[in-house]
Specification:
Length: 171
């Protein structure tokens, strides 16, 4: 789930939300959601997206801790975080709060959605990411997310991603 919204470069025409209001609303909402998640035994993963909110691993950690439920954690996306930080730092700070991991890659020299590139074609420091995941003992699923970068052959991104993910698992 997206934990809140202050604004976005990708969403036009929506009003901005103050940071402190977004934080307060997120805490209240996820405390309520946590009760329902516990009843049905599912985890809620808060995903870091380009919403100008939770721009620090300390803030995400603190929000999750304030909710105080084993059923609310982070669904961490290593590529999404590149515009505000380093994924390996986030991983080590969030630690056991991470429920699932998204792998995508991001090229810093580009902008907008076009900066999301096939795995291993961008600037995510995957060797450091893998070391940090091992350091915190993460041993659950890793999914990869990509935009089709081959207009005529969109499945090529999927094929490339599978091979890249196998390479990353061996790092």
């Amino acid at each position: 789930m997206i934990p809140g919204y202050c604004g976005s470069d990708f969403v036009q025409g929506k009003p901005l939300v103050s940071y402190d209001d977004a934080y307060k609303r997120a805490g209240e909402s996820f405390s309520i959601c946590a009760e329902h998640a516990q009843m049905v035994k599912v985890s809620i993963g808060l995903e870091n997206v380009w919403n100008k909110f939770l721009l620090s691993p300390l803030e995400m950690r603190d929000l999750i801790d304030e909710v105080g439920s084993d059923y609310v954690g982070a669904y961490f996306d290593v590529g999404n975080i590149m515009y505000v930080g380093y994924p390996q730092h986030w991983i080590e700070i969030l630690g056991k709060r991470i429920r699932k991991i998204h792998f995508c890659d991001y090229r810093m020299s580009q902008a907008g959605l076009g900066a999301f590139v096939d795995l291993m074609a961008g600037d995510v420091p995957f060797k450091d990411v893998m070391n940090s995941l091992r350091k915190i003992g993460y041993d659950d699923y890793i999914t990869f997310e990509m935009l089709p970068n081959y207009e005529k052959y969109p499945y090529q991104s999927l094929i490339s991603g599978i091979h890249s993910l196998e390479t990353l698992m061996a790092l």
